[in-house]
Amino acid sequence: MGKKRKQQQRVDSSITASLPKQEAVTLADQLGGDVLAKLKATKQDLTVKEQAAEEERQAKLAFERKQREKNKSFEELLNEYGDKGSKF
User: Fold this and answer.
1) Residues 6 or more apart in contact with residue 31 via CB below 8 angstroms
2) Mean pLDDT value across residues 14-29
3) Residue 77 half-sphere exposure, CB side, CA atoms within 13 Å?
4) How far apart are alpha carbons 9 and 5 in whole angstroms?
5) pLDDT tens column, 22-70
6) CB atoms within 10 A of CB 84
7) Measuring CA to CA, how many Å separate 78 from each of 7, 8, 10, 65, 75?
8) 4, 22, 39, 82: most buried by Cβ count inside 10 Å?
9) What is the pLDDT of residue 1?
10) Which pLDDT score, from 0 to 100, does residue 32 have?
């Protein structure tokens, strides 16, 4: 096991040493401009959709909270507020 690990480390270091930092090819370089632009547009669309879904979820929670408050029985209101209510 020890010999294989040493061989793999030597191979990995020789590969990285053979490529200068200036000539290293990135994924963005390989894809091309139009594909990269499509990916960025898709990412932006997804973030917009996620934000809209989050806003919708928050609005739904607020609506449900109001409905629960509105539909409370007298007993629930008395237990919650007790003698703290105003005179008016």
Assistant:
1) 39
2) 62
3) 8
4) 6
5) 567 777 777 778 888 899 999 999 999 999 999 999 999 999 999 998 8
6) 6
7) 77, 74, 76, 18, 5
8) 39
9) 52
10) 79
Report how far residue 46's alpha carbon sits from residue 11's, in angstroms, rounded to the nearest whole number: 40
Give the Cβ contact number of residue 31 at 10 Å: 13
Nearest to 69 by CA among 80, 82, 58: 80
Question: Which residue bears the tokens 């994924």?
Answer: 27
Long-range contacts of 11-17 (CB under 8 A, 24+ apart): none
Res 44: pLDDT: 97
Phi, psi angle pair for 22, to nearest 5°: -75, -30
Q: State the Cα–Cα distance between residues 79 and 81, nearest whole angstrom.
A: 6
Question: CB burial class (10 A; 0-12, 13-18, 19+) of residue 63?
Answer: exposed
